[in-house]
Design a protein that fits this description.
mainly alpha
């Protein structure tokens, strides 16, 4: 006698191969929607079963690549040595920048807000008003008062 299967689709079962694939794709910067599409699963399923790979994939892959470069460099591969040095220099520069941003104190003067956008019509009106105020011939308030004959 056959065992009855429950209703609906069978539960998804993650595999080690899929975990490695998700880790590599996440490290490459592929969007989650695309990764789910490649695995032919829903994005909710991807996030449910592969959350760790999605969050730490980039760090894990970079670590593995750094170890592989280090190993090849120690064997005398000049290209691997250069790549490893560039990778470590980039990481140290990134760490320095992050530390500098964390160490900022409140002593720095706040920056002024960006100037308000003025359209063509508003700018023309402002220019006309400033011209009237500065030009003696156009400003009625700057003319001498007329003397009356008695």
């Amino acid at each position: 006698m056959k065992a009855k299967r429950g209703r609906g689709r069978p539960a998804y079962v993650p595999t080690v191969a899929a975990m490695k694939k998700v880790e590599a794709l996440a490290a490459a910067g592929i969007k989650r929607e695309a990764i789910a599409h490649m695995l032919e699963i829903n994005i909710d399923t991807l996030e449910k079963y592969y959350r760790q790979e999605l969050e730490t994939g980039k760090d894990v892959i970079r670590g593995k690549l750094a170890l592989a470069l280090h190993k090849k460099g120690m064997e005398g591969n000049v290209a691997a040595i250069k790549a490893f040095m560039a990778l470590s220099d980039k990481d140290s520069a990134l760490r320095d920048a992050e530390e500098a941003s964390r160490n900022l104190t409140g002593d720095v003067e706040p920056t002024a807000p960006p100037p308000k956008y003025v359209g063509k019509k508003e700018q023309a009106l402002a220019d006309a008003k400033s011209l009237i105020e500065t030009d003696d011939l156009l400003n009625p308030h700057s003319l001498p008062e007329a003397t009356t004959l008695q």
